[in-house]
Design a protein that fits this description.
The protein contains 15 helices and 17 strands. It is of the alpha/beta class. Strand 14 and strand 15 form a beta hairpin. It binds pyridoxal-5'-phosphate (PLP).
Amino acid sequence: MPNKIKNDKQVKIHAPIVEALKKAYDNPTFQFHIPGHTKGLGTLPDFRNLVGKKALLVDTTDEFDNLGTLTPATGPIKEAEELAAKAFGAKRTFFLLNGSTIGNLAIAMGLTKKGQKVIVNRNCHRSILTGLIISGAEPLWIVPEKLTDWGLWGNVDAKVIEDLLKNNDDVSMVWITNPTYEGVVSDIQTISKVCKKYNVPLIVDEAHGCLWNFNDKLPTTSLKLGADIVVHSLHKTGGSMSQSSMLHISEDSMISAEDVERALMLLHTTSPSLMLLASLDAARANLQSQRGQKQLAKAIANAKYLRSEIDKMQNIHQLKSDFGYKTDVTKVFIKADGLSGKRLESILEIDFGIEVESASDVGILILCNIGNKRSDFEYLVDCLKKIDTHNYQDIYYLENKKHMPMLTPIIKKSLRDAYFSEKEIIPTKDAVGRLSGEVVAECPPGISILLPGELITEDHLPYLTDYSVIEVLK
Ligand SMILES: Cc1ncc(COP(=O)(O)O)c(C=O)c1O
């Protein structure tokens, strides 16, 4: 027989949890256990009709039907984690429910202790801050450069990390976010060399970069550039269901996987959704398949198409890597002359039925996903062209609320001490000069406006227009 390139139908893509769940579905039992909706019969029929009977038939948890357990991973779940580790280039992978949030909490809880210093970028996701409050580790903040024209944070500078490590000989960990929400990429290779020089582990919150190992036109994953742990929100761009993420321990990691596993055991639900776990398994298998590879190549081609069309527009501009930063091509941040990002977002939504990933004071973020079709982008381009040539002067208004926190914090008390201090709730208008008692961080992007122990100033007020009261230290 002549040699032929095998397609996906011939090369069976192995997805152990998906297969185990199908087997359980094909061999139903009489159920006298949780979940009590009992294959969907004990719920509202309108809900069952909406999500489909089958979705509720496969909604089960990890004790039943030989589906394995999540923590510790056994059976098909263990096998699926091993396949994921191979696919993402890790030594060990943990599946996460409750998103990358729980990964960050487990890292803080399992790997840091009260009083230990951790170098962190201030524009990190609030889950990292929650983790540090729980563990009591002391953040040494890096405030990255600001891209003021875009109202965005730039990348993390290796030199700043090196200076901090030089001046503090008791740092236990460097923990940075890469890429930023909008796709700005830091030089992880150099940062990891610095960390190795000082023998300090490097943790990278790569929540927004989970596709990178599957196409060489995308930036290189930190797992291949010397990071010790990497967290990926597969549900954000990888194709799994909401809340499902992965935590990877890299091949040469100096971190013990068992320390992370112990923390996950404490933090994870004891009733994990098999459907969410199967969706992680399916997302990994899809990305490795010819079909998934094509989808990703198309997403990149669609992003390039969108970017080339935006380049032809007069009043709409895009953040590009030639601004001196490396960026992820699939995350397209645009701004329009004379319109705030929030205004542009609402024009797209109300006039054209388009929803984008997020909007800030300056611009909007468009994700070019593996599930999008070229026709989606053609429609988006048509709409943007209309906006580009329309005069919105008549309905232009000034917004007094700010969205993307770009403030340099004034820290007066340590994070954990402030969090556990005596507090009171006061009207926000009277809060200037007081120390915040709470984490104020709106999603998206989940970056903090204020942290416990930080001085509240006049500059914070435009970010707090939705807060009539705020918690402050007594
Ligand atoms: C950089 C970053 N890390 C972590 C998270 C938390 O991820 P998840 O929503 O998967 O819990 C987010 C969420 O937006 C994020 O932007």
